[in-house]
């Protein structure tokens, strides 16, 4: 019989804790994940639940905690629980960035930073912190100052717990990034961009991309807001829906971005990664203009092959790497 992996072992413990806390406190599975993560971090059950269940869970914490775990083991175990919780959620903005996409975005950030060992990364819609954690784990040899902001209280609690368990020194803020983003100017803004209407008209009207008809787009405002925060010459690596440039206000967004930044690339992800064609996404790379920044000779535009097609993917990665060399982001 195969031994369980640390990821499976931690997930089983986390799931048991979560389901019990969910039932005992009459909260959602997602809300209970943050509570269960705190118990794992503290090594004891901190919630007020029945004595019988508390004793059982504390015994389980003592007996079933994996002896040795990597940061990625922790992230992946929580990811499994989050996927389970989000299937039960009615909130459309509750979604997990696929692992392969998070790893690829980390690769792009690394290339754009061109060997720099220290830089600042910010995610203005950090959610549960899964994307940010995946990139930090991937670039663990770097000294990255990381910041994340999230308006959803449940998600930011999970992000906080996940950061603690992985020992990531991430500054997290429970706030609306469009209204306020309490972080130093980043070198890189990286985010799985939320899409929809923004409800605070008085705030939206302060933005160039804000609308006076009460129908401002949250994704437009986030791009503008973080462009203002971004250091001159800094980068954005954004996961966006493929139809971002097809809505009635797309021309305004494109005109704004053209004034403020250079589009470095648009990489369309394989449709097979998403449940429906309408849900397909791309990675949009931008560089904020500054006197010492040149527009790329040619933007990197590509449709990525399925990540399971190893030979085709290797060819594409070589093409992408060659582009970074050609444009001077990395040395030959």
Automatic annotation (TrEMBL):
The keyword Glycosyltransferase does not apply. GO terms for biological process: methylation. Residues 97-304 form the DNA methylase adenine-specific domain. Keywords: Methyltransferase, Transferase. One of its GO terms (molecular function) is N-methyltransferase activity. InterPro entries: DNA_methylase_A-5, DNA_Protect_Modify, S-AdoMet-dep_Ade-MeTrfase_prd, SAM-dependent_MTases_sf, YtxK-like_N. Signal peptide: none annotated. Residues 8-86 form the YtxK-like N-terminal helical domain. This is Site-specific DNA-methyltransferase (Adenine-specific). It comes from Marinococcus luteus. The lineage of its organism: Bacteria, Bacillati, Bacillota, Bacilli, Bacillales.
């Amino acid at each position: 019989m195969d031994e369980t992996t640390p990821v499976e072992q931690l997930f089983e413990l986390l799931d048991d804790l979560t389901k019990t806390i969910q039932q005992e406190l009459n909260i959602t599975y997602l809300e209970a994940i943050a509570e269960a993560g705190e118990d794992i971090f503290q090594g004891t059950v901190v919630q007020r639940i029945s004595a019988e269940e508390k004793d059982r869970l504390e015994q389980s914490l003592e007996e079933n905690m994996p002896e040795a775990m990597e940061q990625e083991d922790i992230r992946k175990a929580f990811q499994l629980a989050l996927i389970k919780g989000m299937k039960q959620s009615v909130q459309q903005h509750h979604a997990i960035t696929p692992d392969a996409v998070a790893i690829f975005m980390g690769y792009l950030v690394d290339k754009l930073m061109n060997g720099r060992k220290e830089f600042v990364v910010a995610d203005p819609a950090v959610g549960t912190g899964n994307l940010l954690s995946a990139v930090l784990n991937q670039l663990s040899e770097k000294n990255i100052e990381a910041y994340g902001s999230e308006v959803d209280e449940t998600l930011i609690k999970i992000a906080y717990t996940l950061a603690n368990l992985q020992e990531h020194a991430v500054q997290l803020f429970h706030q609306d990034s469009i209204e306020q983003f309490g972080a130093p100017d980043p070198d890189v803004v990286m985010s799985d961009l939320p899409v929809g209407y923004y409800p605070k008209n008085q705030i939206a009207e302060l933005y160039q991309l804000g609308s006076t008809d009460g129908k401002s787009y949250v994704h437009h405002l986030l791009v503008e807001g973080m462009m203002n925060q971004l250091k001159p010459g800094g980068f954005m690596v954004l996961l966006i829906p493929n139809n971002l440039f097809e809505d009635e206000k797309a021309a305004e967004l494109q005109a704004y971005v053209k004034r403020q930044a250079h589009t470095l690339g648009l990489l369309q992800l394989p449709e097979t990664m998403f449940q429906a064609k309408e849900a397909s996404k791309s990675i949009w790379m931008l560089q904020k203009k500054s006197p010492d920044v040149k527009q790329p000779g040619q933007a990197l535009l590509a449709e990525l092959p399925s990540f399971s097609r190893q030979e085709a993917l290797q060819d594409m990665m070589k093409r992408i790497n060659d582009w970074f060399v050609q444009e001077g982001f990395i040395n030959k």
